[in-house]
Design a protein that fits this description.
With 349 residues, the chain is of the alpha/beta class. It is 38% helix and 17% strand. The protein is built from twelve helices and twelve strands. It has an eight-stranded parallel beta barrel, surrounded by seven helices. Strands 5-6 form a two-stranded antiparallel sheet. The longest helix has 20 residues, at 121-140. It is globular. The N and C termini lie far apart (52 Å).
């Protein structure tokens, strides 16, 4: 029997800032029963592009099932604030949020903030790993049943079920706990875009923390080899979606895309990057998706509610409620921390 694939799509549309444009794209992707959509972001690269987090917060009530994964940079953004913002998106979307982890490596972006000079990419991605670790701990810092909401006694929270994160790393020092309850998904889905032969620091972040990798590879064999390496390091629970440029000007192009998807193995699905998002996502929903469903390669409808449901990922338990040692960190205990070279005092929060 054929195996159902996972699909996501980029909504990037330079020059478009109106919510209606992105809502229409997200609804087309939802009509195609894609797992999630992404939206890139940058502090200075384009003046006519919306804030990705804010845009997806606006899209959340206008959509019903599609996952929403905005790009959020870790370089000039405090991980405490990032964790709260992504958590909030998970709440307003009722469990459909993710986080596309990015860094800011240009002089222009560094000058816009003026806090620190631009750093080399290996350092930026090592710092990003610390930021994702902080966010995960903060999401876990409230146990699922920490909220009491007892009007009679005036107790809102069970203080025994809130936990200090006490994170002390090379780049951040964060005590916690979070100021928002645990996300509906436990932890929003972490997504990392990765080339087949990427920086060791970026690959280390992906294999340690990512739920989904958006893989860019030059061909099917390179994609299969890269996917095998990633699974060897991260395990079979990692979902690997191969980047696929999408241009569907006519039915012939749609038919050709359906033999290519069906004939590509070694990955869990595809991340679609449309040339013309309005045209191509609608064509995918109307022409390609039905053909894939007929082959058993695409779901007929959503069967779950959350993004983790769509991806077949379990909801993680809070590390602080996992056993007798309520402060244990099973991830950190199992995997060594990524290397870094800059002083923690330089960027300590």
């Amino acid at each position: 029997m054929p195996r159902q694939l996972h699909f996501s799509a980029a909504l990037d549309s330079p020059g478009h800032v109106r919510a209606g444009h992105y809502t229409a794209l997200a609804l087309a992707a939802e009509r195609a029963t894609l797992d999630f959509v992404t939206l890139d972001d940058s502090f200075t690269a384009a003046p006519h592009r919306p804030d990705a987090l804010a845009a997806f917060a606006r899209l959340a009530p206008a959509t019903g099932r599609i996952g929403l994964v905005p790009a959020v940079t870790t370089t000039h953004t405090e991980p405490f604030h990032t964790s709260i913002s992504v958590n909030t998106l998970d709440w307003v979307s009722e469990g459909r949020a993710g986080w596309l982890v990015t860094v800011s490596g240009t002089e222009e972006e560094a000058r816009a903030f003026g806090r620190r000079p631009v750093a080399p990419p290996p350092e930026l991605w090592a710092e990003a790993a610390d930021a994702v670790e902080v966010a995960a701990r903060l999401w876990d810092s409230w146990e699922d049943d920490a909220e009491i909401r007892d009007v009679a006694t005036g107790r809102f929270i069970d203080r025994e079920k809130l936990h200090y994160t006490d994170f002390q790393g090379r780049y951040f020092s964060v005590r916690g706990p979070s100021i928002t309850p645990r996300p509906p998904q436990g932890r929003p889905v972490v997504v990392v875009a990765l080339a087949a032969d990427d920086l060791p620091e970026r690959t280390a972040l992906a294999t340690r923390y990512a739920d989904v990798v958006l893989l860019d590879a030059p061909g099917p064999e390179a994609a299969r080899a890269a996917a095998d390496r990633l699974r060897l390091q991260a395990g079979e629970q990692l979902r690997i979606l191969l980047r696929l440029d999408l241009a569907l000007p006519d039915r012939a192009a749609a038919d050709a895309l359906t033999e290519r998807i069906a004939g590509t193995g070694g990955v869990d699905g595809f991340h679609l990057v449309p040339a013309d998002p309005g045209r191509d996502l609608a064509a995918f929903a109307d022409r390609v998706a039905p053909a894939l469903r007929a082959r058993g390669l695409l779901r007929a409808d959503y069967t779950g509610r959350t993004l983790r449901d769509h991806l077949g990922l379990a909801r993680p338990a809070s590390r602080y409620a996992a056993g007798p040692d309520r402060t244990a960190d099973p991830v950190a205990a199992a995997v060594p921390a990524p290397a870094a070279t800059r002083s923690p005092a330089e960027v300590s929060r």
